[in-house]
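User: Hello! I'm new to structural biology and keep hearing that structure can be predicted from sequence alone. Could you demonstrate with Ankyrin repeat domain-containing protein? Please show me the input and the output so I can see what each looks like.

Assistant: Of course. The first part below is the input, the amino acid sequence of Ankyrin repeat domain-containing protein. The second part is the output, the predicted structure written as tokens.
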Amino acid sequence: MSFLPPAWGGDIVDDIRQAIQIDDAAEVETQLGRGADVNLADEQGNTLLLLAVREESPASVSLLLAAGARVNQANAVGDTPLHLAAWNGNVPILRMLLDRGASVAANARGWTPLMYAAYAGHEAAVDLLLEAASPVDAATRAGLTALMLAAMKGHEGIVRRLLAAGADPAQRSRDGKTARDLARENGNTDVAEILAAAAARGANDRADGSHEPPAPNIVP
């Protein structure tokens, strides 16, 4: 990873990068004191904060945030620190970022942090992102929702959490598939049955006019 611009000596760049990788916050602070820009980015737009999140270095993340790192600065593909923390399922780092105002919105490809956590199977991260009011039925460019992604991967616990949070089991992707369809295609029959039952309940509620928005409770 080559950081730009080298407005100060390359040794500072190498030193702060190595300090972040081993989560030596004291050394990170020293290098910032030598003039390192807290929002420095490489050619792909990856900032020091993104590096610290990717390397799961919580002390460095905390220090960079306190030093003024931009919490929502995205890299070239649109991923923010929250996206990377969600992919890793690192709840302490997710909390730090959310406490600093990290956005739960989608990246340039339509993927939200919730989708990353759901796809990767991180239940605690999904819980936290739902508590942070992540849009549960947001869809990617291909029309895939967090529920569909969890169903594809067979993450039963996450499917239950998303349904409890109000995810729509009848929503379809751009090629017309529901979460149940994707679960069955990937051999996740137990998940498919859960989704079929949820879809049937939703259809019955709509038929008798008793459907109400679900309470924002999260499956423990």
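User: So the tokens describe the shape?

Assistant: Right, they're a compact way of writing down the 3D structure. Reading them back into a model, for example: The chain has a mean pLDDT of 89.
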